[in-house]
Amino acid sequence: MSDPYEEIVNGERVLRLPPRARHEEILERLHKRVAGATASLVTTKMLPPRTRLNFSAENAFCPDLALVTAATEKVWLVAEVISSDDHHADTVEKKSIYEELKLPRLWMIDPRYDNVEVYHGTPYGLSLKRVLAGRELLTEGLLPGFQFPIHELFAGSATGEPGRYDF
User: pLDDT, tens digit, for every residue of 102-116?
Assistant: First the structure.
């Protein structure tokens, strides 16, 4: 399990608790699959989990997954695995800031419902493209060949008991 970490959201310093076991399992699966898709790409680099991204003096986030362009190191995809401890910060506050920053892609991964919301940046802000669950596939056109069945992303139980999750 990781340590607590700090983010700055709209000028406020926020201490994040260490993510729980299920959160970390989902994040590890996601990183492995995305790493496989980016390994041969010269245009994209995947940052380590929760790399601090300083967007401005008022906003510095540690997203669960971030992809940047190799040439400019500009962030083009962020994935946030939602924790019940900071649900509002991720789904409302940070999403709004990502929208202002004109982030091209955002994945909101929600272990409470075992689904993934996929957003694409548009000239008018982030647009929800799809909500994926069950046996649907998470794909990304900018990651050739990347496919991740949602049920595999959320497989398993951190508590060891079927149907009971600790997130």
Answer: 999 999 999 999 999
